[in-house]
């Protein structure tokens, strides 16, 4: 029996199959790729394009790959910045509120229109609202005269709803009433200056207007005496002068006929008062035949005579009153 040598251990290995060989190659390639990627990332200067697709997924997950993110972060923020700006532009045409509000605007403007006639600017329009004063009851002798003028803004009351009919009237206040009553009459454009009327006096426009219309004038010493309380005789003379009333043929007979106190009428006023009497401008209370020419005219006296002057001018309707003196000429 022949002794044979022991078998070689290397010869007992089974040769690798094709599948096993391919697996080994792939494993080595993967290990080599990983090793090569590690070396290239540490150097940051050596990259192989063919390997990049294999390591794209690890790069996105590695903490090292997040370092450049702060540089790219402003880009998304820059894209978000303009987003709010188009929002108002897109909303403006879509909201139907603006076109629907346009027809609503005229309604507040239409509401006050019916109220405008309630404040007439001149004596001609008929009054649309009544004015009542607490101290001028309906049975007061001058009630119709005062009320009619107050409704037209020619005379005004005081706070609290009072008219104070028995208070005297200054020449400046009387000029203001004339300005309101005869605001449409033509007149001159002269400007008067008086030594006793300061330039800032409230009644200068009314005084100038009354003088321009021929109702009033100053005194020979170039004074006006604006704060002087006007007597009844001056009121009647001013109205007859402003309306340019011609005196009657026999003024003295007219005065003696209608006034028991005709002898108290000043000489300068006799013809004008006779003309005012025949024109129906004189209203005497409590007696129609008692003129009392030199006493201070009250606010009621002035309202009654001014109303009668507007009747004479054809601008107001006559009022029936037992206190109207004289005979009105036609």
UniProtKB/TrEMBL annotation:
Is the keyword DNA repair in the record? no
Q: Where is the signal peptide?
A: none
* Sequence ranges of Pro residues compositional bias: 105-126
**A Pfam family matched in the record:** SLH
PROSITE patterns from the UniProt entry? SLH
**Heme among keywords:** no
The SLH domain covers 129-192, 193-253, 256-320
Per UniProt, the keywords (alphabetical) are:
Membrane, Transmembrane, Transmembrane helix
From the record, give the transmembrane residue ranges: 20-39
Regions of biased composition (Low complexity) lie at 88-104
Residue ranges, annotated region (Disordered)? 63-130
- PANTHER family, per the entry: OUTER MEMBRANE PROTEIN ALPHA-RELATED, S-LAYER PROTEIN _ PEPTIDOGLYCAN ENDO-BETA-N-ACETYLGLUCOSAMINIDASE
Query: Protein name, please?
Result: SLH domain-containing protein
């Amino acid at each position: 029996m022949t002794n044979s040598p022991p078998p070689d251990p290397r010869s007992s290995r089974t040769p690798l199959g094709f599948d096993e060989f391919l697996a080994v190659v792939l494993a080595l390639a993967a290990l080599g790729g990983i090793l090569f990627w590690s070396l290239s990332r540490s150097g940051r200067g050596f990259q192989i394009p063919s390997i990049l697709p294999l390591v794209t997924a690890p790069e996105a997950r590695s903490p090292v790959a997040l370092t450049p993110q702060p540089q790219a972060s402003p880009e998304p923020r820059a894209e978000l910045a303009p987003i709010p700006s188009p929002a108002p532009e897109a909303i403006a045409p879509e909201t139907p509120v603006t076109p629907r509000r346009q027809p609503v605007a005229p309604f507040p403007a239409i509401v006050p229109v019916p109220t405008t006639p309630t404040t007439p600017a001149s004596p001609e329009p008929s009054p649309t609202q009544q004015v009542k004063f607490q101290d001028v009851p309906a049975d007061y002798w001058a009630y119709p005269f005062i009320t009619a003028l107050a409704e037209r803004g020619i005379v005004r009351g005081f706070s609290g709803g009072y008219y104070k009919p028995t208070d005297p009237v200054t020449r400046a206040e009387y000029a203001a009433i004339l300005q309101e009553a005869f605001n449409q009459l033509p007149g001159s454009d002269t400007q008067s200056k008086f030594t006793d009327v300061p330039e800032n006096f409230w009644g200068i426009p009314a005084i100038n207007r009354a003088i321009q219309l021929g109702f009033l004038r100053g005194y020979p010493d170039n004074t006006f005496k604006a704060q002087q309380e006007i007597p009844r005789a001056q009121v009647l003379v001013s109205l007859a002068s402003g309306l340019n009333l011609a005196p009657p043929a026999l003024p003295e007979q007219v005065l003696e006929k209608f006034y028991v106190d005709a002898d108290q009428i000043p000489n300068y006023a006799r013809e004008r008062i006779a003309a005012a009497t025949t024109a129906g401008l004189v209203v005497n209370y409590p007696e129609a035949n008692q003129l009392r020419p030199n006493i201070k005219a009250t606010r009621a006296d002035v309202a009654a005579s001014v109303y009668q002057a507007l009747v004479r001018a054809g601008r107001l309707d006559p009022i029936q009153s037992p206190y109207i003196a004289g005979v009105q000429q036609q």
